[in-house]
Design brief:
This protein is of the alpha/beta class. The chain has 6 helices and 17 strands. It has helices at residues 133-140, 181-189, 228-239, 249-258, 297-305, 309-318, and strands at residues 27-31, 35-39, 52-56, 58-60, 64-68, 74-83, 86-92, 102-105, 108-117, 120-126, 166-169, 193-199, 222-226, 244-247, 267-271, 286-290, 329-332.
Length: 342
Protein backbone atom coordinates (compact mmCIF):
# COMPACT_ATOMS: atom_id res chain seq x y z
CA UNK A 1 0.00 0.00 0.00
CA UNK A 2 1.32 3.41 -1.00
CA UNK A 3 0.87 6.56 1.05
CA UNK A 4 -0.64 8.31 -1.96
CA UNK A 5 -3.55 5.87 -1.73
CA UNK A 6 -4.60 7.69 1.44
CA UNK A 7 -4.23 11.23 0.17
CA UNK A 8 -6.94 13.71 -0.71
CA UNK A 9 -7.12 17.48 -1.12
CA UNK A 10 -8.14 19.19 2.10
CA UNK A 11 -8.74 22.93 1.61
CA UNK A 12 -7.57 25.13 4.48
CA UNK A 13 -11.06 26.60 4.79
CA UNK A 14 -12.46 23.12 5.56
CA UNK A 15 -10.35 22.85 8.74
CA UNK A 16 -12.48 23.92 11.71
CA UNK A 17 -10.60 26.37 13.92
CA UNK A 18 -13.22 26.54 16.70
CA UNK A 19 -15.98 24.15 17.76
CA UNK A 20 -19.65 24.92 17.23
CA UNK A 21 -21.97 25.71 20.14
CA UNK A 22 -23.59 23.80 21.61
CA UNK A 23 -21.42 20.72 21.21
CA UNK A 24 -24.13 18.57 19.64
CA UNK A 25 -25.02 21.21 17.03
CA UNK A 26 -22.19 19.85 14.89
CA UNK A 27 -23.19 18.09 11.71
CA UNK A 28 -23.28 14.30 11.44
CA UNK A 29 -22.83 12.32 8.23
CA UNK A 30 -24.25 8.80 8.51
CA UNK A 31 -22.13 6.69 6.18
CA UNK A 32 -24.36 3.75 5.36
CA UNK A 33 -25.28 2.50 1.89
CA UNK A 34 -27.14 5.79 1.55
CA UNK A 35 -25.43 8.87 2.94
CA UNK A 36 -27.57 10.83 5.39
CA UNK A 37 -26.88 14.43 6.37
CA UNK A 38 -28.07 15.29 9.85
CA UNK A 39 -26.85 16.83 13.10
CA UNK A 40 -25.17 15.18 16.05
CA UNK A 41 -28.09 15.84 18.38
CA UNK A 42 -30.08 13.41 16.18
CA UNK A 43 -27.67 10.54 16.87
CA UNK A 44 -30.35 8.87 18.97
CA UNK A 45 -32.35 8.28 15.76
CA UNK A 46 -29.63 5.97 14.41
CA UNK A 47 -29.01 3.84 17.50
CA UNK A 48 -31.07 0.98 18.88
CA UNK A 49 -31.83 -0.29 22.39
CA UNK A 50 -29.02 -2.65 23.37
CA UNK A 51 -26.34 -0.77 21.43
CA UNK A 52 -23.26 0.07 23.49
CA UNK A 53 -21.23 3.25 23.08
CA UNK A 54 -17.64 2.71 24.20
CA UNK A 55 -15.87 5.98 25.05
CA UNK A 56 -12.29 6.98 25.77
CA UNK A 57 -12.48 8.68 29.17
CA UNK A 58 -8.98 10.13 29.05
CA UNK A 59 -8.52 13.80 29.92
CA UNK A 60 -6.07 16.06 28.11
CA UNK A 61 -3.14 17.12 30.26
CA UNK A 62 -2.11 20.79 30.38
CA UNK A 63 0.96 19.43 28.64
CA UNK A 64 2.38 22.51 26.92
CA UNK A 65 5.08 24.09 29.07
CA UNK A 66 6.69 27.39 28.09
CA UNK A 67 9.91 28.41 29.82
CA UNK A 68 13.51 29.47 29.40
CA UNK A 69 16.91 27.92 28.78
CA UNK A 70 20.06 28.92 30.71
CA UNK A 71 20.81 31.54 28.03
CA UNK A 72 17.45 33.17 28.63
CA UNK A 73 16.15 31.91 25.30
CA UNK A 74 12.69 30.46 25.08
CA UNK A 75 11.91 26.75 25.22
CA UNK A 76 8.64 24.90 24.83
CA UNK A 77 7.84 21.32 25.77
CA UNK A 78 4.85 19.20 24.84
CA UNK A 79 4.73 16.44 27.44
CA UNK A 80 3.74 13.13 25.88
CA UNK A 81 4.05 10.49 28.57
CA UNK A 82 5.76 9.98 31.87
CA UNK A 83 5.83 8.30 35.22
CA UNK A 84 7.06 10.20 38.24
CA UNK A 85 9.65 12.83 37.43
CA UNK A 86 10.79 11.62 33.97
CA UNK A 87 8.83 12.53 30.85
CA UNK A 88 9.07 12.05 27.12
CA UNK A 89 8.31 15.29 25.30
CA UNK A 90 8.45 17.13 22.03
CA UNK A 91 10.75 20.15 22.38
CA UNK A 92 11.15 23.40 20.53
CA UNK A 93 13.91 24.29 19.73
CA UNK A 94 15.16 20.72 20.30
CA UNK A 95 18.40 21.38 18.41
CA UNK A 96 19.52 23.79 21.15
CA UNK A 97 18.99 21.36 24.03
CA UNK A 98 21.76 19.22 25.53
CA UNK A 99 21.77 16.51 28.23
CA UNK A 100 22.17 18.09 31.66
CA UNK A 101 20.69 21.46 30.59
CA UNK A 102 18.35 23.08 33.12
CA UNK A 103 15.01 24.45 31.95
CA UNK A 104 12.83 26.78 34.01
CA UNK A 105 9.01 26.77 33.88
CA UNK A 106 7.99 29.15 36.68
CA UNK A 107 7.62 26.93 39.80
CA UNK A 108 8.62 23.83 37.85
CA UNK A 109 12.14 23.01 36.66
CA UNK A 110 13.36 20.48 34.15
CA UNK A 111 16.66 18.79 33.41
CA UNK A 112 17.29 17.41 29.92
CA UNK A 113 18.12 13.71 30.32
CA UNK A 114 18.41 12.78 26.65
CA UNK A 115 17.90 14.28 23.19
CA UNK A 116 16.44 11.51 21.05
CA UNK A 117 15.97 13.06 17.60
CA UNK A 118 12.87 14.05 15.60
CA UNK A 119 12.25 16.78 18.17
CA UNK A 120 11.91 14.30 21.04
CA UNK A 121 13.64 14.70 24.38
CA UNK A 122 13.48 13.09 27.79
CA UNK A 123 13.33 15.46 30.75
CA UNK A 124 13.35 15.12 34.52
CA UNK A 125 10.89 17.50 36.18
CA UNK A 126 11.27 18.73 39.75
CA UNK A 127 9.91 21.27 42.22
CA UNK A 128 11.24 22.78 45.41
CA UNK A 129 7.99 22.06 47.22
CA UNK A 130 6.19 18.83 48.02
CA UNK A 131 3.45 19.61 45.51
CA UNK A 132 2.88 16.62 43.21
CA UNK A 133 4.44 17.17 39.80
CA UNK A 134 1.15 16.41 38.02
CA UNK A 135 -0.53 19.20 40.01
CA UNK A 136 2.22 21.66 39.06
CA UNK A 137 1.95 20.69 35.40
CA UNK A 138 -1.77 21.49 35.60
CA UNK A 139 -1.01 24.86 37.21
CA UNK A 140 1.88 25.92 34.95
CA UNK A 141 1.00 24.31 31.63
CA UNK A 142 -1.69 24.92 29.06
CA UNK A 143 -3.85 22.47 27.13
CA UNK A 144 -2.23 21.93 23.71
CA UNK A 145 -4.31 22.29 20.59
CA UNK A 146 -3.29 20.41 17.41
CA UNK A 147 -0.69 22.17 15.23
CA UNK A 148 -3.23 22.93 12.49
CA UNK A 149 -5.34 24.98 14.92
CA UNK A 150 -4.23 28.61 14.61
CA UNK A 151 -6.91 30.19 16.80
CA UNK A 152 -8.86 27.67 18.86
CA UNK A 153 -11.57 28.19 21.49
CA UNK A 154 -11.06 30.61 24.37
CA UNK A 155 -12.27 27.96 26.83
CA UNK A 156 -9.78 25.05 27.05
CA UNK A 157 -12.55 22.81 28.40
CA UNK A 158 -13.97 22.72 24.87
CA UNK A 159 -11.02 20.45 24.10
CA UNK A 160 -12.20 18.00 26.79
CA UNK A 161 -15.11 15.59 26.59
CA UNK A 162 -17.90 16.03 29.15
CA UNK A 163 -17.11 12.55 30.51
CA UNK A 164 -13.30 12.88 30.71
CA UNK A 165 -12.10 11.42 34.01
CA UNK A 166 -8.36 10.69 34.20
CA UNK A 167 -5.58 12.98 33.02
CA UNK A 168 -3.16 11.28 30.65
CA UNK A 169 -3.33 12.50 27.04
CA UNK A 170 -1.52 15.05 24.90
CA UNK A 171 -4.57 15.34 22.62
CA UNK A 172 -8.33 14.88 22.95
CA UNK A 173 -10.35 11.90 21.73
CA UNK A 174 -12.16 14.30 19.44
CA UNK A 175 -15.10 12.10 18.40
CA UNK A 176 -16.35 12.50 21.97
CA UNK A 177 -16.32 16.30 21.90
CA UNK A 178 -19.80 16.34 20.32
CA UNK A 179 -21.61 14.79 23.30
CA UNK A 180 -23.55 16.87 25.81
CA UNK A 181 -25.04 15.74 29.11
CA UNK A 182 -28.52 16.12 27.61
CA UNK A 183 -27.64 13.96 24.61
CA UNK A 184 -26.13 11.27 26.85
CA UNK A 185 -29.36 11.26 28.87
CA UNK A 186 -31.46 10.97 25.70
CA UNK A 187 -29.35 8.03 24.51
CA UNK A 188 -29.70 6.32 27.88
CA UNK A 189 -33.44 6.85 27.65
CA UNK A 190 -33.38 5.12 24.29
CA UNK A 191 -31.80 2.05 25.92
CA UNK A 192 -28.27 2.69 24.69
CA UNK A 193 -25.52 1.64 27.09
CA UNK A 194 -22.18 3.25 27.88
CA UNK A 195 -18.80 1.84 28.79
CA UNK A 196 -15.39 3.44 29.07
CA UNK A 197 -11.83 2.57 28.21
CA UNK A 198 -8.69 4.63 28.60
CA UNK A 199 -6.09 5.23 25.92
CA UNK A 200 -3.60 7.98 26.59
CA UNK A 201 -3.16 9.76 23.27
CA UNK A 202 0.44 10.64 22.53
CA UNK A 203 2.94 11.36 19.79
CA UNK A 204 1.28 9.73 16.80
CA UNK A 205 -1.57 12.23 16.87
CA UNK A 206 0.97 14.86 15.82
CA UNK A 207 3.24 12.72 13.63
CA UNK A 208 2.43 12.27 9.92
CA UNK A 209 3.31 9.19 7.93
CA UNK A 210 6.58 9.96 6.15
CA UNK A 211 7.34 6.66 4.39
CA UNK A 212 5.95 5.91 0.94
CA UNK A 213 5.11 2.28 1.79
CA UNK A 214 2.43 2.44 4.49
CA UNK A 215 3.39 -0.96 5.91
CA UNK A 216 6.75 0.50 6.96
CA UNK A 217 5.18 3.13 9.23
CA UNK A 218 5.75 2.43 12.91
CA UNK A 219 3.40 3.67 15.60
CA UNK A 220 4.73 4.86 18.96
CA UNK A 221 3.29 3.00 21.91
CA UNK A 222 0.33 4.37 23.83
CA UNK A 223 -0.97 3.14 27.16
CA UNK A 224 -4.49 1.70 27.33
CA UNK A 225 -6.76 0.16 29.94
CA UNK A 226 -9.89 -1.98 29.63
CA UNK A 227 -11.78 -2.21 32.95
CA UNK A 228 -13.64 -5.36 33.96
CA UNK A 229 -17.01 -3.60 33.83
CA UNK A 230 -16.34 -2.55 30.23
CA UNK A 231 -15.45 -6.08 29.18
CA UNK A 232 -18.65 -7.33 30.82
CA UNK A 233 -20.75 -4.64 29.12
CA UNK A 234 -19.31 -5.54 25.70
CA UNK A 235 -19.95 -9.23 26.23
CA UNK A 236 -23.52 -8.48 27.30
CA UNK A 237 -24.14 -6.22 24.30
CA UNK A 238 -22.84 -8.77 21.84
CA UNK A 239 -24.82 -11.57 23.47
CA UNK A 240 -27.99 -9.47 23.23
CA UNK A 241 -27.46 -8.57 19.57
CA UNK A 242 -26.45 -4.97 20.17
CA UNK A 243 -23.66 -3.17 18.39
CA UNK A 244 -20.38 -2.23 20.04
CA UNK A 245 -19.93 1.33 18.79
CA UNK A 246 -16.50 2.87 19.21
CA UNK A 247 -16.55 6.60 19.96
CA UNK A 248 -13.40 7.42 18.07
CA UNK A 249 -10.38 5.68 16.62
CA UNK A 250 -8.62 5.53 19.99
CA UNK A 251 -11.37 3.26 21.30
CA UNK A 252 -10.90 1.01 18.28
CA UNK A 253 -7.18 0.73 19.01
CA UNK A 254 -7.76 0.07 22.71
CA UNK A 255 -10.37 -2.63 22.19
CA UNK A 256 -8.59 -4.34 19.32
CA UNK A 257 -5.33 -4.32 21.29
CA UNK A 258 -7.04 -5.78 24.35
CA UNK A 259 -8.46 -8.53 22.13
CA UNK A 260 -5.17 -9.38 20.42
CA UNK A 261 -5.12 -12.76 22.17
CA UNK A 262 -8.45 -13.71 20.58
CA UNK A 263 -10.81 -12.55 23.32
CA UNK A 264 -11.23 -9.24 25.10
CA UNK A 265 -8.97 -9.10 28.15
CA UNK A 266 -9.31 -7.05 31.32
CA UNK A 267 -6.27 -5.01 32.23
CA UNK A 268 -3.76 -2.44 31.05
CA UNK A 269 -0.96 -2.45 28.54
CA UNK A 270 0.80 -0.54 25.80
CA UNK A 271 -0.03 -0.77 22.13
CA UNK A 272 1.63 0.11 18.84
CA UNK A 273 -1.21 -1.44 16.81
CA UNK A 274 -1.45 0.05 13.33
CA UNK A 275 -4.81 -0.83 11.78
CA UNK A 276 -4.75 -0.71 7.99
CA UNK A 277 -6.71 -2.31 5.12
CA UNK A 278 -6.68 -6.08 5.49
CA UNK A 279 -7.02 -6.00 9.28
CA UNK A 280 -9.77 -8.25 10.66
CA UNK A 281 -11.77 -6.35 13.26
CA UNK A 282 -12.62 -8.41 16.34
CA UNK A 283 -14.55 -6.21 18.74
CA UNK A 284 -16.00 -3.13 17.06
CA UNK A 285 -19.24 -3.19 15.05
CA UNK A 286 -19.68 0.52 14.30
CA UNK A 287 -17.75 3.77 14.59
CA UNK A 288 -18.29 7.42 15.45
CA UNK A 289 -15.38 9.57 14.30
CA UNK A 290 -14.37 12.97 12.99
CA UNK A 291 -12.94 13.65 9.52
CA UNK A 292 -9.21 13.03 9.47
CA UNK A 293 -6.06 14.49 7.98
CA UNK A 294 -4.88 13.09 4.63
CA UNK A 295 -1.81 10.83 4.65
CA UNK A 296 -2.25 10.06 8.36
CA UNK A 297 -2.45 6.80 10.32
CA UNK A 298 -6.06 7.75 11.18
CA UNK A 299 -7.17 7.89 7.55
CA UNK A 300 -5.41 4.56 6.95
CA UNK A 301 -7.40 3.06 9.83
CA UNK A 302 -10.61 4.52 8.44
CA UNK A 303 -9.89 2.90 5.08
CA UNK A 304 -9.73 -0.44 6.89
CA UNK A 305 -13.10 0.14 8.57
CA UNK A 306 -14.86 1.97 5.70
CA UNK A 307 -13.48 0.80 2.34
CA UNK A 308 -15.47 3.41 0.37
CA UNK A 309 -14.21 6.30 2.52
CA UNK A 310 -13.43 8.37 -0.58
CA UNK A 311 -17.13 8.51 -1.54
CA UNK A 312 -17.98 9.68 1.98
CA UNK A 313 -15.21 12.27 2.13
CA UNK A 314 -16.07 13.65 -1.32
CA UNK A 315 -19.67 14.08 -0.15
CA UNK A 316 -18.53 15.78 3.06
CA UNK A 317 -16.19 18.21 1.29
CA UNK A 318 -18.79 19.07 -1.33
CA UNK A 319 -21.38 19.59 1.41
CA UNK A 320 -19.28 21.96 3.47
CA UNK A 321 -18.61 19.70 6.43
CA UNK A 322 -15.96 20.95 8.87
CA UNK A 323 -12.89 18.72 9.21
CA UNK A 324 -10.41 17.60 11.89
CA UNK A 325 -10.47 18.03 15.68
CA UNK A 326 -13.06 20.80 16.04
CA UNK A 327 -15.01 19.74 12.99
CA UNK A 328 -18.09 17.63 12.32
CA UNK A 329 -18.61 13.91 12.81
CA UNK A 330 -19.46 10.83 10.81
CA UNK A 331 -21.15 7.62 11.88
CA UNK A 332 -20.26 4.30 10.27
CA UNK A 333 -23.24 2.15 11.32
CA UNK A 334 -21.74 -1.15 10.22
CA UNK A 335 -18.08 -2.13 9.86
CA UNK A 336 -17.62 -4.93 7.33
CA UNK A 337 -15.97 -8.08 8.63
CA UNK A 338 -12.44 -8.28 7.27
CA UNK A 339 -11.00 -11.38 5.71
CA UNK A 340 -7.38 -10.88 6.66
CA UNK A 341 -5.39 -9.89 9.68
CA UNK A 342 -2.35 -7.64 9.93
Amino acid sequence: MQLQDFDYELPAEAIAQVPVEPRDASRLLVAGETLVDTTFDRLVDFLQPGDLLVRNATRVRAARLKGTRPTGGAVELLLLSGAGPEWDALARPARKLRPGMRLDFESLTGEVVDVEGEGRVRVRLATADDIPIEDLIAAVGTVPFPPYITTGPSDPDRYQTVYASRVGSAAAPTAGLHFTEDLLAALAGRGVGFADVLLDIGLDTFRPITVSAVEEHRMHEERYETPAETVSAIEEAKHGGGRVIAVGTTVVRALESAASGGSLAVGAGSTDLFIRPGYRVRMVDALLTNFHMPRSSLIVMLAALLPDWRRVYAHALAGGYRFLSFGDAMFVPSIPAGEGEV
